[in-house]
Amino acid sequence: MIDGRQYREVLSRFCTGVAVLTSMSDDDAPLGLAVGSFTSVSLNPPLVAAFVAHTSSTFPQIAATGRFCANVLGHHQVDACRAFARSGGDKFGDIDWTVSEFGTPWVKDVAALIDCEIHSVQRLGDHDLVVGQVVGLSVGDERSPLVFYRSGFHSLQS
User: Fold this and answer.
1) Which CATH number do you get for residue 89?
2) Per-residue pLDDT tens digits for 129-145
3) pLDDT exceeding 90 applies to what percent of the chain?
4) Hey, which of 77, 94, 112, 148 has its CA 20 to 30 A from 86?
5) H helices, E strands: number in the chain
């Protein structure tokens, strides 16, 4: 049996980028949550994926919209990441954002924006694997991305 503490220690040594998945509810309220497991899946068709905990109260609302934007955070956006990692409350209160042509919230000054239609959601362990079909892309801020490593936030050095 794998020890949970040892598992977390070993996997914490894998560096990940940080993204915020956003969407708009039926009543035009912005929705968002932070994810540390986000990746490209396929170039043809263009697919990306994220893992979202089953405990998320926000993801079911995002899933109901059928779409999301993956906002790839820059290293200067630690506070934004923490806001979107919270459960409940107004996550957009101190966030500068706009609505994309696709109808998703775009957080300003991020490294990249990836608009997606939800392709599939699969329950795996204590998370859902969310696959999005990319329908729009935008390059954002040129600064270093926000990186999560060994339970802390970091930036890449050029």
Assistant:
1) 2.30.110.10
2) 999 999 999 998 777 89
3) 73
4) 112
5) 3, 12
- Whole-number Å distance between alpha carbons of 40 and 58: 22
Indicate whether 152 belongs to any domain. Answer: no
- Full residue range of the structural domain in which residue 82 is found: 17-145
| R_g of the chain, CA atoms, integer Å | 15
Question: From start to end of 14-111, where are the E strands?
Answer: 16-17, 19-24, 30-35, 38-42, 47-53, 67-72, 97-99, 105-107
> Which amino acid would we find at residue 75?
H
Q: What gap in Å lies between CA 141 and CA 107, rounded to an integer?
A: 11
Q: Into how many domains does the chain fold? A: 1
Residues 40, 107, 139, 23: is their CA dihedral positive or negative?
positive
Q: Is residue 153 part of a domain?
A: no
Assess if residue 150 is contained within a domain: no
> pLDDT band at 158, cuts 50/70/90?
low
Q: Does this model's pTM top 0.70?
A: yes
